[in-house]
Amino acid sequence: MAKAEIVEEPQAQAEKIDNADLLIGVAGPANMAEVKAKLDQIRLEMVSSVTRLKIVFACLGAGGLDENVDPRGIPIHLVDLQMPAADPSANPWVIASQSSRALLSLARQVNARVSIVLGSDLLGLDVLTIERLSFPILEKQSDLVMPVYPAARFEGLINSAILAPLNRALYGLRVRYPLPLEFSCSLRMAGLLSQQESAHAASSQQQMLYPATTAAITGSQISQTHLALQHEAQTDGLDLSTVLAQLAGSAFLQMEQLAPHWQRVRGSQPLQSWDPPTVGKENGGPIDVSPMIDSFMLASRNLQEVWGLVLPPVTMLELKHLARLPAAQFRMPDELWVRIIYDFALAHRLRTLSRVHLLGALTPLYLAWVASYAQEVGTMPAMAVEQRLEQLARAYESGKPYLVSRWRWPDRFNP
Amino acid sequence: MWQQIQQSLVQSIERVITKIVTLLPGIVAFVLALIIFAAISWVFAMAIRRLLIAIRFDERLSQERSSLAEWSPGSTPTVLVVRTVFWCGIIIGVLVGVSAFEAASAEAGISAYIFGYVPRVVGAAILLFAGNIIARFLSRTVLISGVNMNLQYARLLSLGVKWLVLVLTAAMVLDHLAIGGQIVDLAFGILFGGIVLALSLSVGLGSRELVTRSLEREASRPVEVPTEERKIHHF
After folding, report:
1. Residue B222 lies in a domain
2. Which domain of life is it from (chain A) (predicted)?
3. Measured between CB atoms, does B234 come within 8 Å of chain A?
């Protein structure tokens, strides 16, 4: 006979838990069989290190799991996470951000000293990751711990080309992955992130969560930890144009909202990093960049009129020079790429043309950058690739006065 | 004989002058009504502009992800509302002016005729405006999407869409203004029917083999991503 399970309402489950030490949550719908297996393993492996901590685990559907399976394991309280109804058109990052916000609200409710948000692929649901994410908050008084994933030259290129260097230049902190799948934060930080959510309540449901940005503008202490997790690309069913538009669009939108903060910031500070860096798997071999160059060439023949609305004449001239280069010498200078991103951010703010069109017109330029970068770093050792990305990030910082000038006086300052 | 000509001339001049004198108060009333309503509209539009700026209308609308700004990105929502209010005032001024013209000049039937036609003109203007914006938006959408899909004929496709929408708009405007009568309908039907027939014939007869080859190529194309694409992960 099947055992009848009575699942309590999530609100009631949370109210029964008071002053939790550690809240571990999965941001997004997860495979419950895998969740159960991993939780059982964590219960047994965590015995020695954190027996006295009150641990809460929350995810969508967690209320249906048994709280104590093995008497040797530590107790973990389970809470069924309540999430707002997901928009079917929402991308994986928006869904993860919505789930993260729900987790942070729960963290405030249960007064969790540390909240750990994990990706829905459950790669991070293991003792090592949990320890690495909780240690800086429990022992070193960090407010926010951001992940550093294993370095791989052709992984996460939108992050390397736009998100990370742009965030670094704007908010002055060298965060390697500003849009993380895993992160952890203190109760204070969970409160700040929740307040930020209610401040922009109308738009926050569609906005992505950049925890490091909130921490940067509130002067919270941020650190990074190296995680040996290699997430698979989450872009199944989405084309590059859509992904780029959503990610770059979210960064530009945030720039617009936080303009008074980032205009005052100069330079950048390194973050305290914990644990040794890990090296990612390399795909190996050079990459054929000709399709990407062809895409750029096609766009440079057809999109001059659209780019001309966004980019100043000097940049247009440089793009024309770039289009005339033979494939082997195809290199996009960092300064040019940085100015393109800054000009697109400005056009996004000024609505020079429809945002759908604006972000669509960025795709061929991004492909030109990828082609140039791939040719440059194809044979470089891993350390040199990191240095190359550091050089790009410095170019973003050097170009910031250009952005500030154009942002403040878009009509007067147009080189 | 000369006296008769002179008399006839004087009488016709008198008639014209009398007509002008009769119409003059109406014209002055029309101009005055237009000026007064233009001034009132301007004041009203400025007041609304201040109000919308005070309540941060643009920011609220952009937070709510309104599609209004997507369709007409050159102007902010505030500017669009203010312009609409101003031009509505001007149109009301014209109507009041016409009415005053009729009352002052004792020319019966003018305002009835104009009032009857004004809704058509307004409708046609809205159609023309909307058609232009839609044509521009769709043309740019097709161009950018086509380029991102690596279509060599993206510009041609974009131009085709633009002119298709513009021709459709022109036909609708003329039909709405009741200009050309059945000729516009017929011409538009023939043009569209002709295009569809030409495409059908070219696909069915002339390009049959080309289409077959193209479809076969599409069907046999492997679904998986090319090797180079697999090596690069954009996120």
Report:
1. no
2. Bacteria
3. yes
Same domain, A69 and A213: yes
Which of A202, A287, A288 minimises the CB distance to B63? A202
| Residue B79 within a domain | yes
Q: Are A232 and A140 in contact (CB under 8 A)?
A: no
Q: Report CB contact under 8 Å: B228, A288.
A: yes
Among A235, A306, A354, select the one facing B235 at the smallest CB separation.
Answer: A235
Do B148 and A295 make contact, defined as CB atoms within 8 angstroms?
yes
In chain B, residues with a C-beta closer than 8 Å to the C-beta of A248 are none
* A354·B140 Cβ contact <8 A: yes
Does the distance separating the beta carbons of B234 and A306 come in below 8 Å? no
- Using CA atoms, how far apart are residues A126 and A395, in angstroms rounded to an integer? 38
Q: Using CA atoms, how far apart are residues B168 and B188, in angstroms rounded to an integer? A: 8
For chain A, residues with pLDDT lower than 70 are: 1-16, 47-51, 66-73, 84-90, 196-206, 233-237, 279-285, 411-415
Domain assignment present for residue A156? The answer is: yes
Residue type, A179: L
Q: What is the CATH number of the domain that holds A131?
A: 3.90.550.10
How do residues A261-306 score in pLDDT, each as one tens digit? 999 898 898 988 877 777 666 666 678 889 999 999 999 999 999 9
ipTM: 0.84
Residue A280 lies in a domain: no
Separation between Cα atoms, residue A113 and residue A133, nearest integer Å: 13
Give me the residue from A206, A295, A357 closest to B144, CB to CB: A357
Q: Is residue B175 part of a domain?
A: no
**DSSP labels, A55-96:** EEEEETTGGGS-S-S-TTSPPEEEEEPP-PPPPTT--HHHHH
CA distance A358 to chain B (A): 9
A332 contacts A369 by C-beta, under 8 angstroms: yes
**How many domains does the structure of chain B reveal?**
1
**Any domain includes A284:** no
Q: Does B145 touch chain A (CB under 8 A)?
A: yes
- Which pLDDT score is estimated for A294? 93
Q: Domain of A231?
A: 10-274
Q: Domain check: are A22 and A49 in the same one?
A: yes
Chain A residues with beta carbon closer than 8 angstroms to that of B232: 154, 157, 287, 370, 374
Tokens linked to B190: 């023939």
**Same domain, yes or no: A295 and A175:** no
Using a CB-CB cut-off of 8 Å, the residues of chain B touching A306 are 140, 143-144
